Amino acid sequence: MKRQEKLTNFFSTEPGTVAEGDLQTSSTQQDGAESPPIIETLDECDSNASPAVKKPRLAFDPMDIGRFVRKSSSLHAPLTEEERFKALTDCWKPDEHYQFPKVLESTRTRAFQHHYLVKWPWLAYSEMHGGGAFCKYCVLFARETSDQRGPNFLGVLVAKPLNKYKKALDILKNHERCQYHCEAKGKAEKFLDWYNDKVGHDLRNRLLAAREEQVKKNRQGLVPIIRTILLCGKQNIPLRGHRDDGSLSAVDGNNNDGNFRALLRYRLDAGDRLLEEHLNSAKKNATYVSHTFQNEIISTIGKIIRRRIVAEVKVAKFFAVLADESRDVGKTDQLTVCLRYVGGEDNQHVVKEVFLKFSDVEEKTGSGLARSILGVLQEEGLDIRNLRGQGYDGCSAMRGSNKGAQAEIKAVVPQALYFHCASHCLNLALVHSSELAAIRLVAGSVANVCAFFSNSSKRTRILQDQIERSNSSNSRKKRLKTLCMTRWVESHQAFIAFKELLIPIVQSLLELEQEVGETGARSYELLSAICKCQFVTSLFIIESFSSLFLPLSVKLQAKELDIFAALDLVDNVLLVLRRRREAAIDGFQQILAEVTEVCDSLEIDIRMPRICERQLNRENHPADSSEEYFRVTSYIPYLDSLIDGFISLFADARQGALKVQCLIPKFAVRSSVTDLHPAIEFYESDLSCSVNVAKAEFERWRAKWMEVPQNGVPASAIDALNHCPAADFPKINILLRILATYPVTTASAERTFSSLRLLKTYLRSVMGEARLNGLASMSILRGIDVDPEEVIDSLASNARKLDFVL
């Protein structure tokens, strides 16, 4: 058997001394005297250190590489094997937020850079010796003299730190090619191999290796269980059954023990050896397939997902909160909390809106909702001082200016501005316009007809047959859509579909009218309501505007949309409404032409109602023709109501955006420095600079876009942020980040209630908050991958019957 090499074979025994200064030549040499490496004490800091600007330190890290620098004195004891090994593998390394001291060189100040440590792994930074860089390999294993002839003792990076950085890159590149560095690197690698081989033969480590193997097997057995829960959670598959306890092998044909246990048996049948070995070898009270441990895994997965989201938010710093409240099938009031912030994706800034969690609400007042929202944020580790926006619907408990939730939160965080959901504003504008009698009756009749057909499969089949036989089936609409109060897009689609399918609907009602009983009577009532020229005209008027509002409603719900882009979309639609108002005569003539064609097919006469001196139940405007009557009583009032609603309901958002829109390049070129003054004062704590500094930076920012063509200028906050380097425009970058977090709609919060209705059904209406949030996080945020090993590490923090960590 080959004899193991001695540790001393790895080190040079050449005589000499080590100088404290830079690379220099000494005229004296100690023959036969060896300078062993020593650990430097705290009082041995170099008196000739570079004049770095630094704060005094009372103590240095125990693994600072400066403690291992060799000295000329022979009074110090040599390093032990353990010390050399720790110095190589566990040397102190500054984190990415560490501020390196600046060194004055001539008339400029320079500092050590983080990327040096990444590019040259052998490099280590020391706070000792005045601060500077060392080569780990050369400090521990290099010989005493350099490659040149004569007594040239090693200095910079070996005995003296590199603390002048004007030519740092050249020095580091040259050092990496030096012969003595290559020799030291080889000795270090041999030493690590020797040390690890030595440790591996220790009896204690053999026992440790056996325990490691057992821990590995325990963890492997738990992975299939976690993956099964992840599958069910992401696909929204219920896990538990009527009775889900006992052994997996004990299958009762009359008892459904749930999808989770069924999927585990399916894995066993498919040949999952790891799961089979775990279930066969583990004790009966340590198989970890019970519903109790299932809840722990679900809760842990939810916490891991939320930790990742919170970590991203902390990197972004500023965020906005989106919240809404709804009652679930278990009669519990659930508050959903979502976050909006600026994240990174493909080296670009993007706006993200993500679900955080549900929270049970007991007090639905403004103060109670505010406490719940702030409590959720603080519970997840978010700093509410960085809250810069609130997005809610228009209920008084949320938007109240005195006692609403937004007012209560603004009392705590004044910079957390409130924005009324733009989709709710659009919906309210349509609702207010529906106060006209003709429009309101059409909406009610459409809802009644849709409900009449949807409540019977026979009626639905008759309607489908008429649609297939009808000549008007050239359109893509093949079925009716019900009016939905929460899904705004479907409300627009309902009128569009009803208008295109009006003829098949009337033909179906005529067929159903022949039946005896309630169906025939109800069909007659509906026919009497919709086979009137007033109904058909109003329906076509509503449909002409629904086609305009449908794309706006869809775009407003986009997560990446910011407040400026949203207002731009609203202004475009408002401009179209105003142009239609100016050309009301021509616009209504086109609608009436379509109405006339449909009425001729349905044999409906187009005529205006009788005019009388006093009328209370309908419009009674004098007119010379039916066209003029319907234009004056329906088209123009509906159009005026829409314009007034758009102006009034979006006024608050427009007023809040006007204060800071000068930061957007599209508006910056037409703005002055004084326009930015309100924003600078409002966000003074975030900018941490004087007003003049911020104004000077804005002047440079505006000048950047003055010569750019108008079509190439960013028109939104997120686009402007992607063209605003933080190094060049630090204050503008901060303000743009805040503006990008302004909420536009609460659509993301509304969507979580759709997932909630799938999670809590009448079959599983009772569910704890931790389990609910875990399942909701997996279902809603299925794009976030969770590593089972990370779940096991988190579960192992509590005492277990099996060992999952060393």
Automatic annotation (TrEMBL):
The UniProt entry, under InterPro entries, shows: DUF4371, HATC_C_dom, IFN-induced_PKR_regulator, RNaseH-like_sf
**Can you give the residue ranges of the HAT C-terminal dimerisation domain?**
728-780
Region Disordered, annotated ranges: 1-38
Which residue windows does the record flag with biased composition (Polar residues)?
23-32
Q: Which GO terms describe its molecular function?
A: protein dimerization activity
> Which residues does the UniProt record annotate as the domain DUF4371?
179-402
PANTHER family, from UniProt?
A: 52 KDA REPRESSOR OF THE INHIBITOR OF THE PROTEIN KINASE-LIKE PROTEIN-RELATED (PTHR46289), DUF4371 DOMAIN-CONTAINING PROTEIN (PTHR46289:SF14)
Q: In its UniProt entry, what is this protein called?
A: 52 kDa repressor of the inhibitor of the protein kinase-like
Q: Which organism is it from?
A: Galendromus occidentalis (western predatory mite)
